[in-house]
Design brief:
This protein is mainly α. Helices cover 76% and strands 0% of the residues. It has one domain. It is globular and about 60 Å long.
C-alpha cells in the first residue's frame, strides 16, 4: 500500500509539472481581431447595446455572447486578458474532476480521481488541434472551451440526479440541472449538438430498450433542441450565414465532413501518448467497472454501438461549420470534438474489456 501511495504521488507531481508550460504560455497571450472588435463595441455603446448588436449581427450563441462583450480588453489591461487562460485551465480541471467524482463511487481515493482528471486534461491540451485559438484567444476560449466546461458540470449534475444524490433537495437539484443545460447549450452549436446526441441516445435506451417510462431524457432532448433552434434562427446566425456563398450544400458538407472525420481520427488514434495510456487503462477499467455501471456489459447492446459514438461526436463538431459556411475555416470546433473523443475513447476501452471478460470469458491474468 505504501509503494502504491508513493507511485500515485509521483504521478500526481509529474502531471502537475505538465501544467507549467501551459501556465507559462498564458503570459504571452495577446488579443486578436475579434477581441478588439467586441471591446470597441462595449466601450462605445455599452454592455446591453453591444450584446444586442452581437446577437443580431454576429452570432446567436446567447451565453457566450455575454462573455464576448465582457472581454478584459475593455479595461485596457493585458494582465486580465492573460489571467483568463489560467482561469479556463483551472475551471477545466475542476469540471472534469466534478464529472469523475459524480461518476465514480466515493470509495475511489481522491488522489486517484485527481490523477484521472489531470491525465485527461493534459492529454486534451497536448492534442488540441489549435491550442492558441482554443485556450489563449479569449473569443475562442469563452465560446468553445467554456462549452466543454459547462457541459462537464451539467453531465456531473445529471449523473447525481440519476443516482438520487441531490444537492439540498430534488427540486433545487433539478433547477440547477436545467440552468447548467441552458448555459452549456448557449455556448456554441457544436456543444449543443453533442448534448442532443447524448440525450437522444439515452432516451432511446431508457424508453425503448429498457422499457422504462421515465421521460426525463425526452424532456431534456426537447429543451436542448429548443436551445439549438434559438441559436440557429437568431438574427446573428442568419446574418453570419448570409456572408458565405457556398454554404448549405448538403452533399458537399457530408463528403467533407466524412473526410475530416477520417483525418482527425487517424491523427488522434495514432498518438503515442494515447496508445500508451490506452494499454495502461485496460487493467484499470476492470477495477473501475466494479465502481460504476458505465463499463458494464449489456447483453442487448453490442459494443460496436458504443464505438459509433466517436464518429458521431466528430460529425456534430464538423458538419455544422461546413453547412453554415462551406468551409472549416478554423479548428476551434474540432477542439470540442477532441475533448469528447478522449472521453469516449476510454469509455469504449472499458466497454470492450468488460465485453471480452463477460461474454468471451477472457482473462487478463
Amino acid at each position: 500500500m505504501k509503494v502504491n501511495k508513493i507511485k500515485n504521488n509521483l504521478v500526481l507531481i509529474l502531471l502537475i509539472l505538465l501544467q507549467v508550460p501551459y501556465v507559462y504560455l498564458s503570459f504571452f497571450a495577446h488579443p486578436m481581431v475579434d477581441d478588439f472588435a467586441f471591446s470597441y463595441y462595449r466601450i462605445k455603446i455599452g454592455f446591453l447595446d453591444s450584446l444586442m448588436m452581437v446577437s443580431s449581427n454576429s452570432t446567436g450563441r446567447y451565453f457566450s455572447n455575454i462573455l464576448l462583450v465582457l472581454n478584459p480588453m475593455v479595461y485596457h489591461s493585458l494582465t486580465w486578458y492573460r489571467i483568463v487562460p489560467l482561469i479556463m485551465i483551472l475551471l477545466l480541471i475542476i469540471s472534469i474532476y466534478t464529472f469523475f467524482n459524480a461518476l465514480i463511487e466515493k470509495k475511489t481515493k481522491f488522489v486517484t480521481k485527481i490523477i484521472f482528471t489531470l491525465l485527461l486534461e493534459s492529454l486534451f491540451l497536448f492534442q488540441m488541434p489549435t491550442i492558441f485559438q482554443g485556450l489563449y484567444f479569449y473569443t475562442g476560449s469563452v465560446t468553445y472551451l467554456s462549452g466543454i466546461i459547462f457541459s462537464m458540470f451539467y453531465f456531473a449534475c445529471l449523473i447525481r440526479y440519476l443516482k438520487n444524490k441531490f444537492l439540498i433537495n430534488k427540486a433545487i437539484h433539478l433547477t440547477i440541472l436545467l440552468f447548467l443545460l441552458i448555459i452549456a447549450c448557449g455556448c456554441s452549436e457544436v456543444v449543443t449538438c453533442i448534448i442532443i446526441l447524448f440525450h437522444m441516445a439515452s432516451a432511446f435506451h431508457t424508453f425503448i430498450i429498457e422499457k422504462n417510462k421515465n421521460k426525463l431524457f425526452i424532456a431534456l432532448s426537447l429543451i436542448s433542441f429548443f436551445c439549438l433552434l434559438v441559436i440557429m434562427f437568431s438574427g446573428g446566425s442568419i446574418v453570419r450565414d448570409s456572408m458565405y456563398e457556398n454554404n448549405h450544400r448538403l452533399l458537399n458538407s457530408l463528403w467533407m465532413t466524412a473526410l475530416q472525420i477520417c483525418r482527425f481520427l487517424f491523427y488522434w488514434i495514432s498518438s503515442v501518448p494515447l496508445l500508451l495510456l490506452s494499454v495502461l487503462f485496460v487493467p484499470l477499467s476492470l477495477r473501475l467497472s466494479k465502481q460504476t455501471r458505465l463499463f458494464e456489459y449489456k447483453k442487448y447492446v453490442h459494443p460496436f454501438v458504443f464505438l459509433l459514438f466517436i464518429p458521431a461526436v466528430l460529425f456534430c463538431c464538423i458538419f455544422p461549420p461546413y453547412w453554415s459556411t462551406g468551409i472549416l475555416g478554423q479548428h476551434r470546433t474540432i477542439d470540442v470534438a477532441c475533448f469528447f473523443f478522449y472521453l469516449l475513447w476510454f469509455w469504449n476501452i472499458g466497454v470492450w474489456v468488460n465485453y471480452f471478460v463477460e461474454k468471451r470469458k477472457w482473462s487478463m491474468f
